[in-house]
Amino acid sequence: MTKIERITERERAYVQEVLDAQFHTSAGSLMSTRLEHKFAERFQSKYAIAFINGTATMHAALVAAGVWPGDEVIVPPLTMASTSFAVLHAGAVPVFADVDPQTWVIDPHSVEQQITAHTKAIIPVALYGLAPDMDALMAIAARHKLFVLEDDAECFLGYYKNRIVGSIGHASSFSFQSSKHMTSGEGGMITTNDEQLANLIRRFGSLGYAAVGASAGKITKDTIQDPTYERHASIGFNYRLPELCAAVALGQLEHLDELVALRTQTAHFYQQAIAGCRWLIPQAVPADYGHAYWTYVVQLENNGAFTWADFRNKYLEYGGDRFYGAWQLTYLEPAFRDRSFGPAQTQHFGRGLCPAAEAIQPNLMQLKTNYFDLDVAEQKATALHQTIKFFDA
Ligand SMILES: Cc1ncc(COP(=O)(O)O)c(C=O)c1O
User: Fold this and answer.
1) Mind telling me the catalytic residues?
2) How far is the CA of 352 from the centre of ligand 1 (A)?
3) By C-alpha distance, which of 130, 387, 129, 128 is closest to 277?
4) Fewer beta carbons within 10 Å, N or C terminal of the chain?
């Protein structure tokens, strides 16, 4: 297999099935229920609940877990801002723990240092497809009675010590946004083994309907048509995944292995291309972890001999693709920087909070792995190798 279609006949057939059902409400969860069952099975979880995106998932999970306005939730700063936005959506305060200098994921020692009487949860992020040290984080959570929500938006079929990433925390969140391993344009999923939590998550994301629950995303007509029927057990949002998106996601899930395999093979080409280079340092992958390579990321450590932009321009000249740098650290984004959060405005965000993350972020290069043709991926790896040789000369 050197070339695949990202969108196959399967996705098209499932979309057609939804269209053929003409959006009759009795066919209202034709695809999302199938998607949820398959996803739960693949990610070794009892429940999977489809959501509109991988931010709404985390908002719902935090609220369902009892995170309340004024509570604190520990997050890494080196991630997409949604990890922190979800905390703010729940009315809680993000508290930033630093990252490990080699793996760049949240550092359990730093997490422990951030715990206060107000801490309710931790959101470890599987950054670029690499899980953090989940055993250490789960042990800290058990000691302090904290809720652990995995943010696995970038990690499909990643492994942590023989366990699939997304089956270890109390709940796990995934994104189907268009850059992700599997996509429905936009979309998300939350997995958990906790039935009570699953009930609350479903209800929160489905307008507080009394009749929905862990495994039931749909309300039957007989109950809802009765004029005495009381619909809303609680206040909720409409965060449901549309059926057309569920159809695409189901097709994607059915060939997820090949979608992920192409990314890991591309990462392997890059690994070979940078072998022996002393100034491009890849994300360190501990021995018993399986990286899902949403992107292949390297850190430029050349003591200023040339800049990030110099490298990118030369890579483009050799036929490489435009690559992203890392997001700004969340607390340095204008929405957070030099502002105070929390009921007593005690969390002040500014430079100096997480020194390791601050040192790493400016130098990261996120090389694309979403090539669906391995010949093209190999050409990009060759361009990378030539760029390295140019700067080494
Ligand atoms: C780490 C991380 N968390 C959360 C999200 C949010 O997902 P969504 O865009 O589906 O809301 C993303 C990506 O988009 C992400 O990369």
Assistant:
1) 180
2) 25
3) 387
4) C
C-alpha triplet 213, 218, 224: angle, nearest 5° = 100
As for ligand 1, residues whose beta carbon falls within 6 Å of it are 53-55, 79-80, 82-83, 125, 151, 153-154, 175, 177, 188
pLDDT in tens, 231-263: 899 999 999 999 999 999 999 999 999 999 999
- Domain locations along the chain: 9-255, 257-392
Helix (H) or strand (E) holding 368: strand 364-368
111 CA → ligand 1 middle, Å: 21
State both tokens at 362.
């400016």
Q: In what order do the strands lie in the sheet with 295-300?
A: 280-282, 295-300, 364-368
Among 55, 104, 239, 245, which residue has the most ligand 1 atoms within 8 Å of its CB, making it the best to mutate?
A: 55
Q: Strands 119-122, 147-151: parallel, antiparallel or unpaired by DSSP?
A: parallel
| Superfamily for the 257-392 domain | Aspartate Aminotransferase, domain 1 (3.90.1150.10)
- Answer yes or no: are the C-beta atoms of 218 and 72 closer than 8 Å: no
CATH number of the domain located at residue range(s) 9-255 in this protein: 3.40.640.10
Counting ligand 1 atoms within 8 A of each CB, the residue from 57, 82, 241 with the most, and so the one to mutate, is 82
220 or 97, higher pLDDT: 97
Burial 122-143 (b: 16+ CB within 10 A, else e): bbbbbbbbbbbbbebbbebbee
Q: Taking residues 53-78, report their average pLDDT.
A: 97
